[in-house]
Write the C-alpha cells for this entry.
Amino acid sequence: MATLFVDKIDPQSGTSLEIGSSGDTISVPTGASLTVPSGGLSGQNYPAFEAYQSATQTGVSDAVWTKMTMNTETFDTDGCYNNTGSTVTLNGISTPAYSFAPNVAGKYYIHGKIFYGDIASTDAYQYVSIYKNGSEFSRGQRRTVGTTGRDATVSVSEILNLSVGDYIEIYGKTNAGNGSLNGDAPLAVFEGYKLVE
C-alpha cells in the first residue's frame, strides 16, 4: 500500500471530488480526526435544529395569525436558528425573530407543533402554518365542535427547497377567542433538518 502526502485536494473547476468507488470503505484511523465543514458531509442531516416555547405565549388575538415564540433551543448544529425576539445576523444572514435561516441550500424537512389550551367555542378552528420568507407555505388544521372546553394540538410538516437567504417561521391562528398558547418542549415545537441529497 502506497502513502500519498498532500496538503489539499481540489476537484477540477465545475466538477465534484470523489474519493473511492462503489463498494470501497473509507476509514479514519484511531487517533486521527475529521473536521466537518459547515453544512456537514454527505450522509449527515446538517444543518438541523429544534426549538420550543419555554413558557405560555400570551396575547394571542382571535382570528389573527401570530408568530410562535419558540425561544429555547434544544439543539442547533450550525447556528442557523434565531431564538431571540429581534432580527439578528447568523452566518452572515439577516434572520428574523424565532426563525430558521439555512446556511446551505437544499431540501429541508420542517415540522411545527403548537398546543391550544382549553378551547371553548362553537365550531372553533385551530391552525398552524409554516411560513417561508414571510408568506404562508403549508398549513395544518384542526376543528372542534360544541361549547365544551377542550385542549387541541395541531401540527404541520413539509419538505421545502431552501436557498441561503430564505427563512422559515411557525405561525398559529384560532377563532376561539383571545387567549394564550401553552408552551413547553412536549407541547410546542419547531424543528427541521437538511435532507441528504
